[in-house]
Structures are given as structure tokens and as C-alpha cells.
Amino acid sequence: MALDVLAAIVDEAHELGRPVYTHIHTAAEALDAVRAGVDGIEHVPAGPRCAEALEAMAEAGLYWTPTLSVLDAIAHGGDWPAFVRDLDPTGTLPPSVFDDLASVPVSERRLRRAAGARAVLDALAAVDLTALAAAGLRIAAGTDAGNTATPHALTLHHELLL
């Protein structure tokens, strides 16, 4: 979305007393969202400017919901049944969940997405989130549950661990 359009939406929502949260995928999108005055950002601002985007978000005092559990699920795209089994050590999920996951084909595209998700998680591991939180970034827990290999409830526990 163009920055001027996003800024107009944010301004109108704020005039109505409504907060604005936006989904992003890249650091450039996150920086535009900060410039537009959003109140919160969902997902990790991927790319070489990740740290810059997170610092801008902290300076603006935004809420950030990283949804690391969905990234971790994507990163395990070659073996989702094993990933979900690790989330569910007590065996609360029905066997049909694992059958469904096992039926998803492992394509080259899925493996490329897995590698990309691992790269984003690795880049984020180099960021000092404690310092960013101290600088004003408010980190929230959210999972994007409902995506493949992200069962509700279990994924929230995983998110908190991450």
C-alpha cells in the first residue's frame, strides 16, 4: 500500500479513536507503517533493514506481535508432522492432524520458503530485543494460528518460548 494511502487510513482511524495495527512482511513495509503512524505491527520485518525497522518501532513506542511460531512452522516445512509432534508432547491432538500434515506435499517452493523463514529467524536472533523493549517496543504474543502446522493453543505456548 502506498505510504500516503496508509497514512490517510491511519489518520482517519485515529480521528475516530481507533488504533491501527498492520501486517507487514518486509522491513521497508514496517518503516512505512511507522511513518504512517500505526499503533502496532504484526510479523517480523524481514530483510537487511530488520534491526533499523525494529529500532524505529521502539522509538515510536509501537506494539509488535512477531508471530515467531508461524515462522518456525514455515522453517520446518519439510517435516511438519514432527514439528507439531514436538509442540504436543502430551499427545492432545488427534491423529488426523498428523495425517493431514503428512499429506501436504514437500515442494521446492515449500523448501525455499523454509530456508527463507530460517534466514529471518537467524537475523532476528542477532537483534537485542531486551534493549528494544527498554527503548519502548512493546512486544505482544500472537501466533497466526490456523496456518498449516500452527494449531491453536499449543502454538501460543511455543510463541512464548520463542
Can you characterise this structure?
The chain is an alpha/beta fold and 162 residues long. It has nine helices and four strands. It has a four-stranded parallel β-sheet with strand order 1-2-3-4, with no helix packed on it. Helix 1 packs across helix 2, helix 2 runs parallel beside helix 3 and helix 4 packs across helix 7. The longest helix is centred in the C-terminal third of the chain and has 18 residues. The radius of gyration is 17 Å and the shape is elongated. The relative contact order is 0.16.
Q: Can you give the helix content as a percent range?
A: 55-70%
The overall average pLDDT, rounded, is 92
Task: List segments where confidence is low: pLDDT < 50 over at least 5 consecutive residues.
Answer: none
Distance between the termini: 30 Å
Give, in order, the helices and strands: HEHEHEHHHHHEH
Q: What is the number of helical segments per DSSP (H or I, 4+ residues)? A: 9
Q: Structural class from helices and strands?
A: alpha/beta
DSSP, total strands: 4
Strand order of the largest sheet: 1-2-3-4
Summarize it.
This protein is an alpha/beta fold and 162 residues long.
SSE layout and pairing:
Blueprint lengths: L2 H13 L5 E3 L3 H10 L3 E3 L7 H11 L2 E3 L2 H8 L4 H8 L7 H8 L5 H18 L3 H6 L3 E2 L14 H8 L1
Parallel strand pairs: 1-2, 2-3, 3-4
Helix pairs in contact: 1-2, 2-3, 4-7, 5-6
Keywords:
162 residues, alpha/beta, four-stranded parallel beta sheet, elongated
